[in-house]
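Per-residue structure
===
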Amino acid sequence: MSELNTLRPPKGATKTDKRVGRGYGSGNRKTAGKGHKGQKARSGHDVRRNFEGGQMPLNRRLPKRGFKNVLAGTVAVVNVGQLNVFDEGAVVDRDALKRAGLLKGVADSVKCLGFGELEKRLTVKLDGFSKSAAEKIEARSGKAEVIRGE
């Protein structure tokens, strides 16, 4: 068993730093591995990531299209047919959908759409319903309750 004062990294895990500008004996002669002249050969050289030497950068040359509304929220969609995983008479809300694996990721609101057939009586409390979804839920004597910002 080794003592703490004898611990060493495994062979090949560490490399000695390149000693730049230390003469011919270092193996980096004359220009010290920096090539000839230019901005990158100077001391303290630092160039921005997308800097292209003064040429108009690619991200500014490419055309921009459309409009992205930063205030628009994301809406997660659940279809009526997917609600059959719940037991008869269950209350279905955002938390119940997450537990059932029907809601993944983060969404600002959840809307129920009318694709598929509902076979159980459920109370569904979500941010929105399509007309057909609400009709299908209520046809099974269930409730489609719209909640706002709770």
In short: The first helix runs from residue 58 to 61. The radius of gyration is 32 Å.
